[in-house]
């Protein structure tokens, strides 16, 4: 077990609940500090399972199944990596006190459901968010949008990520299709959907905030340089760091991140999603874990978002310094197939200062993220161009 500076000969054990691309990098970062990694996901051969000590395949929305695995493995740390997890199991496990849930069970519960985090940010902390309403039936949704929210607005499942089940509605005639889509395509159907007024932002950012112990053993909040990103259908298509923004907007963004992460508590890295227009900043949502848009830090920071999460959890010092501008562009599959080949890696990697990371997911689906192109340059603009060129060179074809 690693405790601050003392490293015993009994390996510290971490169990990842979710083993996608973010989990894979977490597993690697954990192993660099000698931590034993157990990777759990809903399907076999998930990315983090390729590099973990052991893995298990279970329905992570089933409380009993999660408890059984945790009972078997007795991990020191449980690191949720995805939203769709039976969070009540984590609350019960935390109460037993044998494992640390990262950053804590309440954080996982609050953030996996848009209702929990909205209530906390908008109602308890009075942080600006888009105008919103929840609905359990189509007629409730229609009334809320017509009387309160207006058009254009976003309709989303309360439990989903990567834009699943989300649509932008411009007119009343599109509302029913958006309701049906939200009800049927979230990761879990909670029975409710959220309607959010559209915010006309100049740009949106992910502010990575790390709650870690400082040299005096006291929790301090550290911020990475803001990450700008561009999204289509609720999923990111490019991210870059640093996003240029005014000092005062950045200060407001950090203040919001501080308020929300302090309220949530625990140790670890958080991805705070914010919309910025002029000097105004709105809170959108938060991941109590590394963020997909933050994959850019694999080339821009000395300690990337995965290192930072792991170091914070283990009680080790962190440094959020940026060493260069950079960009990331995800590689999305255009086809569905169980066996795919990746063409054009030679061309992609011929782009100077670029890298390609393939996640080796066992199945490609249309728009599923299969890899990421990363690039650095003197400016964000140049890095973005390189990352786009590199990503475009990779073709995903049936084997
Ligand atoms: N109220 C809003 N106003 C303007 N744009 C929005 C709004 N809600 C969502 N969007 C756009 O859709 C994107 C995805 O929304 P959101 O983050 O809520 O979805 P998600 O499914 O949680 O995605 P992820 O898991 O990738 O963060 C946002 O980053 C933003 O570009
Ligand atoms: N925005 C959240 C996010 O990026 N999560 C990342 O995507 C994986 C799921 O991918 P899949 O849907 O292709 O299995 C998750 O396991 C996580 O790594
Ligand atoms: Mg989001």
From TrEMBL:
Show where the ATP-grasp domain sits: 119-314
Catalytic activity, as annotated: N(1)-(5-phospho-beta-D-ribosyl)glycinamide + formate + ATP = N(2)-formyl-N(1)-(5-phospho-beta-D-ribosyl)glycinamide + ADP + phosphate + H(+)
**Biological pathway:** Purine metabolism; IMP biosynthesis via de novo pathway; N(2)-formyl-N(1)-(5-phospho-D-ribosyl)glycinamide from N(1)-(5-phospho-D-ribosyl)glycinamide (formate route): step 1/1
Q: Which positions in this protein are listed as binding ATP?
A: 114, 156, 161-166, 196-199, 204
Q: Does the keyword Cell membrane apply?
A: no
One GO cellular component this record assigns the protein to is: cytosol
Subunit organization: Homodimer.
Q: Which family does it belong to?
A: Belongs to the PurK/PurT family.
What's the protein name?
Formate-dependent phosphoribosylglycinamide formyltransferase
Give me the gene this protein comes from: purT
């Amino acid at each position: 077990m690693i405790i601050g500076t003392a490293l015993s000969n009994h390996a510290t054990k971490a169990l990842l609940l979710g083993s996608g691309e973010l989990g894979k990098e977490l597993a690697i970062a954990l192993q660099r500090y000698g931590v034993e990694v157990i990777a759990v996901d809903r399907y076999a051969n998930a990315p983090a399972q390729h590099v973990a000590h052991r893995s298990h395949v279970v329905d992570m929305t089933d409380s009993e199944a999660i408890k059984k695995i945790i009972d078997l493995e007795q991990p020191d740390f449980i690191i949720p990596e995805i939203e769709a997890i039976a969070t009540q199991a984590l609350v019960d496990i935390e109460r037993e006190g044998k494992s640390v849930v990262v950053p804590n069970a309440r954080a996982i519960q609050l953030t996996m459901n848009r209702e929990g985090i909205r209530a906390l940010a908008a109602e308890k902390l009075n942080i600006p968010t888009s105008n919103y309403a929840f609905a359990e039936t189509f007629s409730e949704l229609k009334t809320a949008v017509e009387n309160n929210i207006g058009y254009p607005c976003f309709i989303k499942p309360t439990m989903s990520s990567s834009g699943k089940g989300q649509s932008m509605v411009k007119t009343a005639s599109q509302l029913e299709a958006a309701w049906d889509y939200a009800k049927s395509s979230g990761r879990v159907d909670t029975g409710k959907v959220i309607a959010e007024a559209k915010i006309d932002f100049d740009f949106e950012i992910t502010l990575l905030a790390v709650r870690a112990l400082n040299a005096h053993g006291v929790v301090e909040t550290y911020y990475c340089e803001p990450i700008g990103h561009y999204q289509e259908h609720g999923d990111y298509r490019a991210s870059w760091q640093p996003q240029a923004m005014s000092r005062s907007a950045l200060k407001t963004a950090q203040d919001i991140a501080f308020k929300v992460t302090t309220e949530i508590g625990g140790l670890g890295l958080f991805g705070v999603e914010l919309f910025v227009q002029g000097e105004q900043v709105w809170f959108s949502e938060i991941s109590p874990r590394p963020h997909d848009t933050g994959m850019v830090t694999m080339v821009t920071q000395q300690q990337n978002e995965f290192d930072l999460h792991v170091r914070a959890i283990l009680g080790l010092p962190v440094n959020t310094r940026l060493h260069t501008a950079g960009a990331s562009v995800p590689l999305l599959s255009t086809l569905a197939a169980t066996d795919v080949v990746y063409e054009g890696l030679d061309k992609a990697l011929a782009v100077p200062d670029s890298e390609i990371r393939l996640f080796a997911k066992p199945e490609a689906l249309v728009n599923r993220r299969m890899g990421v192109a990363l690039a650095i340059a003197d400016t964000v603009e140049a890095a973005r161009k390189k990352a786009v060129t590199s990503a475009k060179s990779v073709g995903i074809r049936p084997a």
